[in-house]
């Protein structure tokens, strides 16, 4: 009954924001066109369809807001105007009561906050659809932030996901372009994403990995600061971490007053992004200004601070290699190499003509070079590439969707900090150095070091394995005889089938002749 009421509420909100008009306008059929004229009552809605969709999702609640945020990253699936509008969705969720937060902490950690901490702020400092954050002080004097999962989130999510699956099935039947949109696959992807966010141990592990990647032993500690995880006070529903102090990266005047060099900060953001992607293959994939701060402490002035690790991306060595070569080919304007890489990697069908794909990529990218970042929209470049890719049946790689989203975030922060920053020129030396280290003697030595342990185990066994292989009886003649026997048996079976078919045909012909004679 509750599910039915929820479904009725969704239908009511959809009609309120005229989403029926949005669906009908995408169906190219005379009946749909007639229905569209009826629901419009002779005139179209006042607001654009993207605005109406965003407002509808905000009215439907936090889970639908999250879904819209995820959908905004799939610019390969939805029209550009919808993607840009959905990117404006924000979690505007009031905090749940402080006594409930204390109960959640006690249920997760086995003691009330007053016992676990010297001080625990009852009022949350931040509240979102999945969790809210409280500041606290541990008994040893360390300042921490305690992230508490909203109670009852799992049941709410399961109900709304069930309805989303129903709606995805309806869209799949009604919308002609649904084969490319893949609504059921998108909902399934969102299901995984949400359940991952509900496990705060997973987020804590992401935080710990990112902190290790920028630790003192890596030599990158001056680029990015990541909070330390307090593991003894972390469970699937409570995540306790070191409290970080700084200025939001979007507050440029405060950063300047604190003495931060804004131009260096912009270049450092690009370096952090490419370091995470190509060196580590593990990157913070939610780099909007609300999650990125800058330290204003004298000893760490100007360092980036990362927060909220619910969404991270990872790339294989194969992905990193092809991406780096693609970026370098773009920077060098070697569009033929870009086309070759797409074909070699299997991102486009092997039958694709190199020169045709090369010409399409050139037409998209060439107008954007040699411009400052203020005049370049990487979002527009990506959208045009997506539109071009459909002509060549390019398969959008799932592992690259988060990377595209993060690149757009980096673009936005770079434009806000330094409108004259040239992303291409800033990134090119880094990628060239990365490729040199990977392909040159340094890269060879690194790979040998990585494989040394495995080789140390295999080398002593090689003489025995070679002897066993050489002393093993030759089975090739036996296999050839068996294949010959099978071929003869197959030919005999084929002759039997042909004879049987001939007999049946003759029998049917005789029967027809007898019946006709009567």
Automatic annotation (TrEMBL):
UniProtKB keywords: ATP-binding, Cell inner membrane, Cell membrane, Kinase, Membrane, Nucleotide-binding, Transferase, Transmembrane, Transmembrane helix, Ubiquinone, Ubiquinone biosynthesis
Q: Which segments constitute the ABC1 atypical kinase-like domain?
A: 88-341
Look up keyword Cell inner membrane and say if it applies.
Answer: yes
- The regions listed as transmembrane in this protein's record are 496-516
- Highest taxon, organism lineage: Bacteria
User: What protein family is recorded?
Assistant: Belongs to the protein kinase superfamily. ADCK protein kinase family.
Q: What is this protein called?
A: Ubiquinone biosynthesis regulatory protein kinase UbiB
Source organism per UniProt: Pusillimonas minor
Gene name of the record: ubiB
């Amino acid at each position: 009954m509750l599910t039915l009421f929820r479904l009725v509420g969704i239908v009511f909100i959809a009609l309120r924001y005229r989403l029926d008009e949005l669906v009908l306008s995408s169906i190219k059929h005379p009946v749909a066109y007639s229905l569209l004229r009826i629901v419009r009552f002779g005139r179209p809605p006042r607001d654009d369809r993207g605005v109406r969709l965003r407002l509808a999702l905000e009215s439907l609640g936090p889970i639908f807001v999250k879904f819209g945020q995820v959908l905004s990253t799939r610019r390969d699936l939805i029209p550009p105007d919808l993607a840009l509008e959905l990117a404006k969705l924000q979690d505007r969720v009031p905090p749940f009561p402080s006594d409930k937060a204390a109960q959640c902490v006690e249920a997760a950690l086995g003691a009330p906050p007053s016992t676990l901490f010297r001080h625990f702020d009852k009022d949350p400092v931040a509240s979102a659809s999945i969790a809210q954050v409280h500041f606290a002080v541990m008994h040893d004097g360390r300042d921490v932030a305690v992230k508490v999962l909203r109670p009852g989130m799992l049941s709410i999510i399961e109900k709304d996901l069930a309805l989303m699956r129903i709606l995805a099935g309806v869209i799949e039947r009604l919308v002609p372009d649904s084969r490319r949109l893949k609504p059921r696959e998108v909902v399934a992807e969102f299901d995984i994403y949400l359940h991952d966010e509900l496990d705060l141990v997973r987020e804590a592990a992401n935080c710990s990995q990112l902190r290790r990647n920028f630790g003192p032993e890596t030599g990158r500690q001056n680029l990015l600061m990541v909070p330390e995880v307090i593991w003894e006070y972390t469970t699937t529903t409570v995540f306790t971490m070191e409290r970080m102090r700084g200025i939001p990266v979007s507050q440029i005047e405060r950063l300047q007053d604190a003495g931060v060099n804004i131009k260096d900060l912009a270049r450092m953001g690009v370096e952090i992004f490419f370091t995470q992607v190509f060196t580590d293959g593990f990157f913070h994939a939610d780099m909007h200004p609300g999650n990125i701060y800058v330290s204003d402490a004298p000893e760490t002035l100007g360092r980036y601070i990362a927060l909220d690790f619910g969404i991270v991306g990872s790339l294989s060595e194969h992905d990193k290699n092809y991406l780096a070569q693609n970026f370098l080919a773009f920077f060098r304007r070697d569009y033929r190499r870009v086309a070759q890489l797409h074909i070699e990697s299997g991102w486009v069908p092997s039958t694709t003509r190199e020169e045709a794909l090369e010409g399409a990529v050139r037409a998209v990218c060439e107008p954007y070079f040699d411009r400052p970042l203020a005049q370049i929209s990487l979002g527009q470049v990506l959208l045009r590439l997506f539109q071009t890719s459909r002509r060549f049946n390019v398969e959008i790689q799932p592992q690259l969707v988060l990377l595209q989203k993060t690149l757009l975030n980096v673009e936005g922060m770079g434009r806000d900090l330094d409108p004259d920053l040239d992303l291409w020129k800033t990134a090119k030396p880094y990628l060239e150095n990365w490729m040199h280290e990977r392909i040159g003697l340094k890269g060879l030595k690194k790979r040998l070091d990585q494989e040394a342990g495995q080789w140390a185990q295999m080398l002593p066994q090689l003489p025995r394995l070679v002897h066993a292989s050489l002393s093993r009886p030759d089975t090739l003649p036996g296999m050839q005889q068996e294949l010959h026997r099978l071929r003869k048996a197959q030919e005999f079976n084929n002759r039997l089938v042909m004879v049987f078919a001939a007999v049946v045909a003759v029998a049917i012909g005789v029967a027809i002749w007898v019946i006709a004679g009567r």
